[in-house]
Structure formats: structure tokens, C-alpha cells
Design goal:
The complex is a heterodimer of chains A (445) and B (342). Helices cover 72% and strands 7% of the residues of chain A. Chain A is mainly alpha-helical. In chain A, helix 1 packs across helix 6, helix 1 packs across helix 12 and helix 2 packs antiparallel against helix 3. Chain B is mainly α and 342 residues long. Chain B starts with a helix and ends in an 8-residue tail after the last helix. Classes of the chains: A mainly alpha (445), B mainly alpha (342). At the A-B interface, helix 2, helix 3 and helix 14 of A face helix 3, helix 4, helix 5, helix 7 and helix 13 of B.
Chain lengths: 445, 342
Amino acid sequence: MSNLLAARSLMAMSLGFHIIFAIIGVAMPLMMVIAEWRWLKTGNEVYLTIAKRWAKGTAIFFAIGAVTGTVLSFQLGLLWPKFMEFAGPIIGLAFSIEGFAFFTEAIFLGIYLYGWRKVSPRAHLAAGGVVALSGITSGVVVVLANGWMNTPRGFTMIDGLPANIDPIAALLNPSGVLQALHMITAAFAATGFAVAGIHAFLLLRQPDNTFHQGALKIALAVGCISALFQPLNGDFLAKQVAEYQPIKLAAFEGQVHTQNGAPFRLGGIWDSEKEAFDYILEIPYALSLMLHMDPHGQVIGLKDFPKEHWPPIGVVRTAFQIMVLIGVIMMALALWAAWLTFKTKNLFQSRMFLKALVLSIPLGFIATEMGWVATEVGRQPWVVVGYLKTAQAVTPMPGISISLIFFAGLYAFLAAIVVWLMWRHVAATPTQFEMAHPSDEGEFK
Amino acid sequence: MIGYETILGIVLLLALTFYALMGGADFGAGVWHLLARGSTRRDQHRLIGEAIGPIWEANHVWLILVVTILFTAFPPAYAQVSITLHIPLTLLLIGIVLRGSAYAFRHYDVKDDDVHLRWDQLFAASSLISPVLLGIILGSVTAGHFPVNPESFYEGFVAPWIQPFPLVMGLFTLVLFTYLAATYLILETQDEKLQELFRKRAIASVLIAGVLEELVMLLGKTGAPRLWGELSNSVWGGILQIGVGSLTLLAIGLLFTRQYWWARTCAIVQVTITILAWGVAQSPYLVPPYLTIFNASSPEVTLRLIVIALFTGALLLFPSLFYLFRVFKGGRLFEVSKKADG
């Protein structure tokens, strides 16, 4: 394996691993705060138990998210020193802001997790609110930095060096804002559905357990609202990609030749010899209509660009298609949930729906990973589109494949332990009896 | 008016100091976890687990702040350090990941069973290796002379840190962190047995730290001549050495007379002065002899914005941190303990 490929694989693996923990860390605090707020408002102890149980589970994800985030802040330099040297002055500010957001998050998380008895209920709820807000802020600035890699702004190249640097313009690059919105929504959709799925699984066994009913309602509400909103902002993002990164959009949509009145394509296998897709289904004019509100709008194809600037087409398109497919499934589940809630007035009686929720546990995470594969592999061969190639940015340190193997083992180990610990959490679910006698659980001894 | 480069250099040094005083002490506590023996072993473990619980994640963020300031304000230095010290940095990361994960696995689990002993061991072992690596990295940066076009793998990626000076810096950092942790832990408990135990450990570690500090200076003569020159051939260097020496004696005296609050304050001052002195002797170099805060800095517009971001952030950060420590460390942090004198 070449050093470049090893470095890319290691970066992808570190990001892919961190993202799962990051989105849970972004989304869970809001859900815990909603549960705690319900408790303060209604006095119903079940909601307090929900907040405490969720907090305890989330603490593990936070800790792993924090340490893997640390790995990334170093690995950016360890693997891509030339990229950081180039990007630091222009977009580094995003990470300085993220540093403070992370600080605030860690401080108030400590208060939230350990302070149940040490601060007043209102102060405790407020601490949870600060954790939720700073988590979202961290996510937004990091994705803004990624957006800059896709649509770099805020500098001009003079004699091969960036000059006239404007970090604010870099931060507000055209991709970043919509990407951040899409990512934060993804965090809430994925986490909401995953948590709802776990409680659905337990409700199938104990249908009258009020703990799981309450928890499922909150998680599902967060998941469904996000899943309904996500296709909309995904559509805005796609239009934006079409305008600023046409080559990436062409890879997403399998648009080989520039075309007026392009069809929306489903499936397809990329044949790199023929430079065409096999087995592709076409819905006439749909892509032009979606992107330009005009059935005859022009969609630029891959062939308009030199071949050395093409991203790996097959990977990018497959990842994009899986993401869209899952988005559609999650939207359908959200509509089903809405129908059950408003028409039959009893969400918990449909065993079929609960089973569907159980199956949906991994969906949001898969979609998020696929979205990142689509946008990051779709950015290749560039690390900063149009300015710096990934191959130019890689470290001269040889033997990165050794690091890759080691970190693969480390992440596999951590993942296995987290899954096992979560299983213990689920197995230790409170019964109806424990619910009636709330204890100190959730506080760390 | 001092320039933005200097301000950011100072902020970098202060952030590193805070990391040592807070995050460093958490690592030190992990080392004491590893060394816990005797009939109070379980009590020691519980004390350490409770002491760092609510604060360790926040304490850890100082390191992230150091890294983000470094790559935004001084990108060539970050790039150079990342290339040359790839191996120790990667090992440090592994230590950090295992330490944090093991702590979370142990303390945020729903059940309490034997597997927790394994997490404890992993937590303690990674707390031992991480500070050594951190010291090695700082030691290599102090020594400088990173190869620009290395002729071999060894010369480029191993030789800069496998040297007596960085290795002794690693040990010195480790012992300094355990010393801090011991003086903190005394004030975290009311149990006199534990207080006595950590009192003895604090005395032992400050003595070893003193010996290692002298060794660092001795090896610095050839290993890091710039640092050695600054510290041994200047008036302030001389005053400083006498100052650190007398603080060591003072700390021992305070520990002997059981004035724990003052002993801890003394330890904090010692560590702060040591790091600041290192920073002043090192300045303006980030990596001697080529990269300084002036020739490796980002354009002024970037520096200005980071300074604004840092000061705005500090307005949020310090009240929040004060609140966190007030809630969990309360009287132990802010009042001279009456009990400790008795």
C-alpha cells in the first residue's frame, strides 16, 4: 500500500470513527434537556429517570468523541503537514473557535453528569442547554472548515503562496453553511432514530413500560422532525454543489455528458473502461427539474473536465445513492410515525412500526458515513479544491500503513467495548417497580 | 505595543501551563492509581476516581487549545513538529485515547464487576506513558535542530527524540505531574491515613523532581545548549534557579509541617515558574534554530482574529471554569483548610 493511500485510509478511518461519537454527542444533550424539562414541568419522575439514563449512556460517547477528536487535531498535521501549513492561516480560526466551544461543552458536561445534587434543578437544566448549544457550535465550525476545502475562499495565490488572506471570508465559504446545516440535521435524525429504535426494541418486550414510552416519544419526535427537514436542506445543498462543484455533482448523479434536460438516474455500475454506467434507470428530465426548476436546464457532465480531476466515480456515486435511499426511508418512517400519532392516537400499539424502528437503528449512521464518503472522496484528487492536491499534502514520514493497522485495531477494540457496554445499559433497563422508586442512579460514585 | 506574535506566544505558553497544572495532575493521579498498594488500596483508587471525574474532560481541552493555536498562528512550526516527531506524537495520542476511554469504560458503566479492574489497569498504565511522551516531545522541541532533508529514516524521524536530553525531560515531566497530583489529592480527602500517604508521596516526588531538574540542566549543556546558556549565563537564570531550589525546600517544609493548602500552592507556583522559565529561555524560538514566533507566524490579519477569538473565548471560559471548580472542588480549592493544621 502506498504511503498516500495509507494516509488517506487512516484519515478516513479516524474521521469515520469519530463522526459516530460526534453526532451522538451533538444530538443527545438536546434530548436529555427535553426529558429533564418535561420532568421539571410535569413533576413526572419517569422523565427524570430518562434524562439520567441517557446521560449515563451518553457520557461514554462523549469521552470517546473527545479523545478521537484529539487524535484528529493531531492527525491533520501528522498525515497532511503541507495541507495544514497552507490552510492554517486561512481556516485555522474555525478550529480556534471550535476549541472554545469544546471547552464550554466539557465544562458544562462535567456539571451536568456529576452535578445532579450539587446545583439547583434550573442551573442543571441550563448546564444541559449549554452542552447542547456548544456541541452544535463545534459541529458547525468544523463543517465550515470542511466546506472551505470544497469551495476555498478568502485568499488569492501569488507566486504559489496564499496572499490577501481573509479568514472570515474563508469561514463563510459557499459550501460550509449548507453543509453544516445538513450535518447537524443528520446528527439529530440519526441519533433520534437510533435511540427510538432501542426503546422500541424494549417496548416490544415490555409494552406497558412507561419509561420506554416516554423515551421513545422524545427520541422519535427529534428524529422525525429532522428526517422530514433533511431532504429539503439536502436539496439546497445539491443545488449549491451543482453551482460550485459541478464535477462532484456529476459524479453524484452519474452525469457523464453535459446535457439539457438531464434525467434523474437510479442505480448503475460504473465501468471505468467504457466511461459509462451499466444497468442505470432513468427518470426523464427529473434531474434538471430538481436542480434548476426547469426540465430543460443544463447539467454539466464529467467529460467537460480533464480526466485527472475526476474523483473515483463508482465510490462517490454508490455512497451518494445509499445516503439518498436511506434519507427517503427515514422520511417515510417519519410520515408513518406522524400518521400513527395523529390518526390512531396510539403509537405504541403498532408492533409492526416498533419493529421497523428497531431495524432503523443503524440507518442514520450509515447515511451520515455515506454522505461523508460522497463529499470527501468526491473532493479528490484535491485536498483544497483547485489549489492543493492530496498527494502534495501527505507527510514525508514513511510507513504510515503501520499506523493504519494499529489504529484499525484500536478503533475495532473501542467499538467492540462500546457496543458491549451499550448492551449492558439496555439489559439493565429499569422495570416498572424501579420506576416507582427512583434512586440515585445516573450519578457517578 | 507588543506584537500579535508575542501575545500568541505568551498565550501558547500559558495554555501549556494550565494543561500541566490541570491535565497534568490528572495524569499524575493515574500514576498514583498504578502505584496504590497496601490496605488502603481501594480507598486510594476511589479517591482518585472521584477527584478527576467531573473535571478531566475540561482539563484535557487545554491541549487541544495549544494545538489549534499552534496550527493557526504558527503553521510551519506545527507542520515541522508533526513531521519530525511523528512517532512520539502518535504514541502520545494512543496513550491519550486509551487513558480517556478506559476511564469512561470504568466509571460510566451501569454494572460494577471484575472487568473494571482491567479498565483501571489500562487507565493507570496509559497515565504513566503519556506524560513521558509529552516531556520527550517538549524536550525534542527544546533541543531543536530538526533535520531539513534527512538522509535516513533514523536521522529524520528517530534521532531527534531518542536523545538523553528529551528522555530525561520525559521523566522529569512525569515526576512533576505526580508531585502536583499528590499535593492536590491530600486536600481531596478527609481521611488522615490517605493524607499521610500522599504527604509522603509528595515529598518523595518533589525530591526526585529536584534531582531530575538538575539532570535536565546538566544534559542541557550539550543537548539543548540554547536553553542551558539562557538559564546558566544570565542573571535572571541564576535568580530563577535559586528561586526554584528554595521553593523545593519550602514545599518540603510545608509538607513536613502539614500545611497542605500552602504546600499545594507552592507546588503550583513551582510548576508554573518552571514552565514559564522554559518558555522565556526558549523564546523567540518555536523550534530552534530556524523557526521563531516571528518567521513562522501567519499573516497579521489571521493573528489579529485569533487574538480577538481568544480574548472573547477567555471571557466565557474563565467564569465557566471557575464555576466548575467551585461546584466540585468548593472549599478545598478556595479556602485555607483549618483541619489540615490539626
